Structures are given as C-alpha cells and as structure tokens.
Amino acid sequence: MNDLTLGERLRQRGVSRRGFMKFCAATASMMALPPMMIPKVAAALEQAKKPSVIWLSFQECTACTESLTRSHAPSIEGLIFDHISLDYHHTLQAAAGHAAEHAREEAMKEHWGKYLVVVDGSIPMGANGAYSTVAGHSNVDTMHEVAEGAAAIIAVGTCAAYGGLPMADPNPTDAVSVEDLVTDKPIVNVPGCPPIPTVMTGVLAHFLTFGRLPELDHLKRPKVFYGQNIHDRCYRRPFYERGEFAETFDDEGARKGWCLYKLGCKGPTTYNACATAKWNEGTSWPVEAGHGCIGCSEPRFWDAGGFYQALSVPTSDVGSTILTAGAAGLAVGAAAAVLNKKTKGAAVANRETITIKDLSKES
Amino acid sequence: MSGLDSIPVVAEGSRTENLKPLLREIEQALRELIDDAKETVIDLAAMPFSAQDEQDLKSYLGSGEVIATMNAFGPTSIEETGVPGVWWVEHKDAEGRRLTLHLEVARVPAIMVTPADDLREGLAGLQASLSASDDGDALQ
Predict the structure, then answer these.
(1) A28 and which of A33, A219, A226, B107 could share a cystine (Cβ 3.0–4.6 Å)?
(2) Which of residues 233-252 of A touch B (CB under 8 A)?
(3) pLDDT per residue as tens digits for the range A198-231
C-alpha cells in the first residue's frame, strides 16, 4: 500500500481521470502555480511516492498543528496528508512514550537521508536545553539527531522559522530558530502565527509533486506564497491610494472598510498569502475582519513596535530612501519591502513614525 | 432580531479594482484563441478578487447557451458566459465547498474533453458487453 503512487491511490479510491485532473487543478491553485502548469502537476503527482515525514514540536503553542488539522476535509489538503507517511507527531499520534519514540527511530532508520522533517516551535538553548525536553531529550539534541538523516527541513510557524514569541525580548529561554541551529540541510521557512493551512500543505504538495523544495526568498520562504506583501494584494489598497483611512476602530472609515494603515496595519512590510488564500475555508482574513495585519510572518514581529502604532521606519538613510522612493512614484509596499529586506533585525531600535503624507505617491 | 443584527456596521461590498484589468486579459486571451488557437485559464484565486468583483464580472459577462455539470471528486459546474469561448469552471469538493474558480478561454473547457484512456476503456467495455450480448442474444 505504501508503494502506491498518488495517482494509483486516488484511482483505488474511485477518483476518475477527470476527478484526478480536478484534484491537480486545485493542487496547482494551492501551490500558487499558474493553471497552465496543471498538466505538469498531473504528470508528476501521478508518479508521486509516499514520503516519510517526522514532525517535531518544540517550544510552541500547538497553533500550527491546530491550523493544519482544521483545514477542511475531505479536501485537497486531506488527500495530500493522506499521501504522506506521518511517522511521528507526538500531538497527533496514537502511540505514546517509548512506543512513540521507537516509531520515530524506526522511520529514521528506514528512510535515512530521504525523510522530511517538519518542525514547529523554537529551540531553547538556555540551561543546557533543559527548558523543553521530550522523552528526556532536550529539543536541541533531538533537532540535531533528526536533522542528520533528513532530506530537508520545513520550519512551520514563526517560532520555528525565526524564533517567534519565545525569542521575543527578553528571550528568557535563549530560544533560537531551526536555521540558527541547522546549517547543513535544505530548510524552507513557512512562517506565520500560525501559518495558513494551504500554505503548509502547498509546500508539502510541491515536494510531493516535484521532489524538491520550492523557490525561496532571502528569508527562505517559498516565493509563491510569500513573494508579495500584504499591502500590494490587499483589497483595501484602493482606499490607501485615495488617502481614505480609518482613524479609530469605530469611526466612519472603519465602517466603510477603509485602509487600516493608521491603526497600525503592518501590511506594507509583511510578506504572506493571507490576502488571497484567506482563513477558515477562504471565509475571511484579519484585514477583512477589520483589524490591521500584525506582521506575523516576519522575523521579530513581536518586538517591532506596537501592533496599533502606524508603521515606522528607522531614521537612518534607509528612511530617506523610502521617502525618495515615494517621491519617485514607487508604491510604499515596494519601498518598504526593500527596507524590510535590508534592515531586518537591526532596524527596531532606532525608529520614528512617518506620516501618510510622507509615504503617499503624490508627495 | 438577533444580537448581530443590532450592530450598527454597514458592510459595503468591497471591490479590488482588478475587474477592468481582468477584462482586458480576457480580451487578449480571446484574440489569441481566434488567431493562434491558444487557450487560456485564469485562476481567480491567484489575485485579489472580492465576492463583489466576482458578482460584477458575472453581470458584465452575462450568461451563454451552455451549462454543464460534472460529478467527479465532487461537483463541477461549467458555464459559458455571454461572450462565446469564455467559460466559468468552478470546482467544488464533495461537500460543495469551492476548490477553484477558473475563467477558461477555449472552444471547450479542457475538463469536458473525454480523456483518451477513458475512451479506450469505454470502447473495450462496450465491445465486451456486445460480445456477451451476441452470445446470449440479450438485446433481442
């Protein structure tokens, strides 16, 4: 049964060839691939074998797993997950204690060099790793042990990708991200607090389909999902262009769905797929619900100033660069993106708020 | 009147202003279909496109002559718009939730064309059935 390809498995379930093409169309859409790629996706998925996946949960709140398991089923996500061999996930698996650890060790031995590792949660380094242990082993030891035989590592959630909340100032456990610890394996970061379920499954589907990780940006995020910022894809963007802003959460602008920039929306500096993928089966997303983006897919977003303060930029020469870009007619998103890429981490300490006028295209 | 009804918030149908560029894309795709027989599929989930935009687009394109339903891995509705060669193809899962919404610019949407392997299997099945009926005179 485990040797069946995905195509064979679906046919065994009674899915017809047209049904398979429909599955591929939905999978391509989930991977943010253009529809013209559907035949290639179909050819690849037809032959896709079932990969072994070891899921490690470290210093986390389980929201990443919650997000994933609440993706609607029976669904494309469900079928993708049916087609991976989730050999270890201590929140979901039936086995416990020694039996659970034995399952992980067996999977590692059987699929050495080929298995995928999914990590949610940051890794505490303080007190010799004692802040978080599983089965008597520190997270840091487990991470090193499991990473050694992995084909690739997928860090899901901002904690695993960039340290997240545990790493926020004052970082009491000396938490680090996966890529801080593992430097000799291919790593893909799927940040978000939590990440969008279809983004997580989209990355797995990409690996299943093409046998490799998707193209990544400079923060190791898949470009297909994190290639554009929230601001550029936001349906409220036209209000921004017209200078129509909500000033409070209950004013006329808020009622009319105007831009939330002044209420602290971090859309211009945040790269994620919320604006198109949305949440809860595509029902809505934070900005549509009336709350600005908090930038949860960006490194150190917890320490990037208040969630309700208008976006600020450092007072360095990069700040003047963004103003110049505005004057030159570039969108704030593009300018802020450059800023975001160049000054991540170091930018937090020295900030001042810039005004809408500073950022407007017309200024 | 429920508690929610008493909340004094008027939800306006939001628009992304992507409708006009999309219509131009459809125009270009139609031209390519006529000139080069090139088919185009546009995934409406791949761009910011609100429910209001979708409603506006449906009104703008209107309804055509062909409506088809496919039942494979959940229902799929296929409808030609008032612009011949421009089709709505909406895939849903078994519980009726939308998987994808495509605008397809083609003479016939690809999903409607019978797969070659299905043709061969269909022929083999029919031949086997005819052969059995010849033996047993079941059709007489």
Answers:
(1) A33
(2) 233-238
(3) 788 888 888 878 888 889 999 999 998 898 899 9
User: d(Cα A123, Cα B19) in Å, to the nearest integer?
Assistant: 46
Start-to-end CA distance of chain A, whole Å, equals 64
Q: Which of B47, B72, B102 sits opposite A19 (nearest CB)?
A: B72
pLDDT at site B55: 92
What is the enclosing helix (H) or strand (E) of A21? helix A17-30
Does A258 lie in the same domain as A186?
no
Chain B hits for A34, CB-CB cut-off 8 Å, are 43, 46
Given a contact cutoff of 8 angstroms between Cβ atoms, the answer to whether A134 and A143 are in contact is no
Domain residue spans in chain B?
14-129
Structural domains counted in chain A:
2
3-state secondary structure (DSSP) of residue B80: strand
Nearest residue on chain A to B90, alpha-carbon basis? A22
Is the model's pLDDT at A356 over the cut of 60?
Answer: no
Pair (A166, A82) in one structural domain:
yes
Calculate the alpha carbon distances from A137 to A169, A206, A217 in Å: 26, 32, 33
Determine which of B53, B88, B99 to mutate to test the interface with A (most A C-beta atoms within 10 Å). B99
Same domain, A287 and A186: no
Min Cα separation A276/chain B (Å) = 6
Identify the domain containing residue A200 by its residue range. Answer: 6-226
Task: Report the CATH number at residue A21.
Answer: 3.40.50.700
* pLDDT band with cut points at 50, 70 and 90 for residue B22: very high
Cβ(A10)–Cβ(A26) below 8 Å: no
Asked whether the predicted pLDDT for residue A74 surpasses 90, the reply is no
Nearest to A72 by CA among A285, A301, A279: A279
pLDDT given for residue A110 in this prediction: 93
Tokens coding B63: 């309804």
Question: Six-digit token pair at A291?
Answer: 């709350």
Q: Judge if A216 and A259 occupy the same domain.
A: no
CA distance A297 to A254: 25
Pick the more confident residue, B12 or B103.
B103
| Residue A10 is assigned to a structural domain of this protein | yes
Out of A226, A261, A283, pick the residue that ends a domain.
A226
3-class DSSP state for residue A281? coil
Residue A267 and residue A188 share a domain: no
CATH of the domain at A309: 4.10.480.10
> How is domain B14-129 classified at the architecture level of CATH?
2-Layer Sandwich (3.30)
Beta carbons of A237 and B16 less than 8 Å apart: yes
Q: Could you read off the pLDDT of A17-36 as tens digits, one per residue?
A: 888 888 888 888 877 788 88
Task: Name chain B contacts of A233, Cβ cutoff 8 Å.
Answer: 47-48
Are B111 and A25 a contacting pair at CB < 8 A? yes
Does residue A72 belong to the interface with chain B, where contact is any CB pair within 8 Å?
yes
β-strand partners of B92: B98
Distance CA A105, CA A30 (A): 32
